[in-house]
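pasting for the record
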Amino acid sequence: MNNQMEITERERLSREDAAARLHALADALARHNDVEFDRGGVHFKVHVPDEVDFKLEIEFEEEEREIEIELKW
């Protein structure tokens, strides 16, 4: 039985609103062992251990730039 789940969310935000979301996630990671999300009326709680693998990827293309941050455990 496969217990895999993936939630992807994309939306256009101002730079300031994107920073506020990143701040909120960073604050939750720093203070708690769990990070909580509400999406579509469903509440998710994700346990985060004391150590994680951190990946930062920056891509430069002709018309687009991308910063991707990944946490794994």
